[in-house]
Structures are given as structure tokens and as C-alpha cells.
Here is the input.
Amino acid sequence: MFRPYSIEPMRERDLMDVVEIEENSGLNRWGYDAYRRELFTNQNSIMIVARNLFMGPSVIGFFAGWTVEDELHVNNVAAHRDYRRVGIGRSLMEAAIDEARGRGVAQVLLEVRASNESAQQMYRNLGFSFVGRRRDYYRLPTEDALVMKLKMG
Ligand SMILES: CC(C)(COP(=O)(O)OP(=O)(O)OC[C@H]1O[C@@H](n2cnc3c(N)ncnc32)[C@H](O)[C@@H]1OP(=O)(O)O)[C@@H](O)C(=O)NCCC(=O)NCCS
Here is the structure.
């Protein structure tokens, strides 16, 4: 299937776009320095972008996570507001899961806002299931997190 974007490792020059998407996606704020630190100093990080192949912003989605022993933890994943529902979130997740599998990861874990039904639907479609709830995990606004897990085959 044709995709108007490519899935690539994140580079330093992508960071401004990544932060802009983060700020417009209602995610917990990491900010430029935290992403840069992950990129350069955490060899267990998995940082991926969806690069726009047409006119418009250069980066239209990103994934940030890290592996701890045999687990991948999803820290942030988002698609640019103007480019949702064209498969970017799913493609980023699939690429991260593939990369993690290559590193010997056995399961993927993530937290998602209890009210974030679109992300929960995406994760369910990818095979994740609900395994728990963390009370008042999020701030601004305060909200529970649902914990979701994918066991790798
Ligand atoms: C969640 C998010 C990353 C999905 O990205 P996306 O590129 O729009 O998603 P995709 O096009 O890959 O869709 C994958 C599946 O997710 C589900 N989905 C995505 N958006 C949805 C919505 N608004 N309503 C219902 N289901 C939705 C659908 O099942 C979809 O599959 P389909 O299009 O074949 O029906 C995007 O909405 C986003 O950036 N949200 C803000 C940040 C965020 O909440 N991140 C997750 C933090 S845990």
C-alpha cells in the first residue's frame, strides 16, 4: 500500500518538529532537551519518525520508547494533528515493535489516558490488552492511566 511518508530513525534535525507535535497532541511534556538526551545518550532508546514525502511539515509523527531488559516501554507516540487516520500511528508502533523484537524484547508495555479512546483502539488493533490501571497517573488534567501490554509471539 502506498504511504505518503517514510518511517525512519529520528535524527537531531527532527527534534524541533517532534517537540511541536508533542505540544499539540496533549501528551505529557518531555521537551527538546529530554528527546535529545534520549537520542544521544540512551543506547536502549527507540526513536522513530514518520517523514512526510510531500509538501508540508517534514515530520508528521514520532515514536519514543526504550527497552529495559526484555520489555519495550512506550513513552510517547503521536501523529501530527493534520495527518491523523492515515496509518501513521500504526506504522510507527509496528516499526518500534519490529525493532524491539530484533533486540530480544518479549513484551511491550504502555500507559494511556483512560479517556484516550482513539489511542486505546489503535493499541487493541495491534494486539494489546488491558492489564491494569494506575490511579491519578496523569496531570493537567489529573486522570488514571490504563496499562496495556502486548506479548510478542
Ligand atoms: C493515537 C494516535 C497516535 C493515532 O495515530 P493515527 O496516525 O491517527 O492512527 P492510525 O491512522 O494509524 O490509526 C490506527 C487505528 O487506531 C484507531 N484510531 C485512531 N484514531 C482514532 C479515532 N479518532 N477514533 C477511533 N479510532 C481511532 C483506529 O482503529 C485506527 O485504525 P483504522 O483507521 O484502520 O480504523 C493519534 O490520534 C495521536 O497522535 N493522538 C494524540 C497523541 C496520543 O494520544 N498518543 C498516544 C499516547 S498513549
